[in-house]
Amino acid sequence: MLKSVHLFGCSSGFVSNLLKPNSIVGFSLTFISSKRLSASSSLCCSSLRLSCPSTAPLFLAPRTGSFKAFCGSTCSEANQDGTSSSPLSMSESPPPSSSTVVHSSSLMQEKIRNIRFCQWCGGQTKHGIPDGEEKLRAICTVCGKITYQNPKMVVGCLIHHDDKVLLCRRKIEPSYGLWTLPAGYLEIGESAADGAIRETLEEANAEVEITSPFAQLDIPLIGQTYIIFMGKLKKPHFSPGPESLECCLFPLDDIPFDSLAFSSMLVTLRLYVEDVKAGRIIFHYGTINKRPGTGASDIHAYTLDYHLRS
Ligand code: ZN
Q: Ligand 1 centre and the CA of 275: distance in Å?
């Protein structure tokens, strides 16, 4: 609690983004940049009379880009791609190409073929298309039941506080060291909203109240659906959970778009920034399709299709 109270005690986004509580007795500075910064960059540190080890831990972003809030005029502006204000709409976003659909289908078939044992009895499976169906299935050779592969639901929170959004830097793979909204897989027995609240508590030790749904984003290629809620902090406290290296509130102009973990987070935050600039937060539905031939780690290589707003 003390750690997060101190974070909120910082009067500016510049200060609060620089400070990372790493112990109960003091602070160190974490510079989040594609460049190694010298200790002389820590102006806010000395002004606040906080401990500033000269060998403060540094995070070297694997992608290009830097953040104005952290490095002031010595670094370049945030990547323009990440802060694009060009609106996406149904008319501007074509449906997924047939090659994307075929690619998705072959991946799903591969997933089905990798199901070797029945989820119900443990018997061996065979693979085929059952009568009345059109898709390849894994069918148990013992009990005859089908083990289906269905999309996973990921739920999370977009927490806004003092015109900033809360992001967590991942302490786990995939995308270790990159930034994300607090989010994770929905558990059996919980609602999407409850799951988003739980994930936020787990990843950011933050108690939040859901205020509205913000986006549903389907990613057919990997069989995931994201539901992101708007939320607000019940108390002005947060700190890294076991799966986070750190948690920070980012002013919208300083969101690290080039160091985000997933396309879904990139899309969500872009839409949110656009909405804020437009003066109205609305609900978005869309389908994220990877551009054929691009790698999974290239989070910018996507199209947002079927973008609907309400
Ligand atoms: Zn079986």
A: 49
Chain segment 121-153, per-residue pLDDT in tens: 999 999 999 988 889 999 999 999 999 989 999
| Pairing label, strands 19-21, 179-180 | unpaired
State in Å: Cα 63 to ligand 1 middle: 46
Residue 93 lies in a domain: no
Contact assessment for residue 218 and residue 288, using Cβ atoms and an 8 Å cutoff: yes
Length of the chain: 310
DSSP state of 203: H
Using the mean position of ligand 1's atoms as its centre, give its distance from the Cα of residue 219 in Å. 30
Say if residue 19 is in the same domain as residue 68: yes
Domain of 123 in residue numbering reads as 115-147
CB neighbourhood size of 201 (10 A) = 16
| Selection from 231, 241, 166, 210 nearest residue 7 by Cα | 166
Ligand 1 centroid to Cα of residue 151, in Å, is: 21
**Span of 55-64, 239-248, 277-286, 296-305 with lowest mean pLDDT:** 55-64
Residue whose C-alpha is closest to residue 138's, from 155, 153, 157, 121: 121
Show the CA angle centred on residue 159, arms to residues 270 and 71, nearest 5°: 65
69 phi and psi, to 5 degrees?
-65, -30
CB of 184 closer than 8 Å to CB of 227: no
Q: How far is the CA of 114 from the centre of ligand 1 (A)?
A: 16
* 123 C-alpha to ligand 1 centroid (Å): 5
**131 and 186 inside one domain:** no
In this structure, the answer to whether residues 140 and 163 fall within a common structural domain is: no
Distance, CA of 67 to CA of 256 (rounded, Å): 6
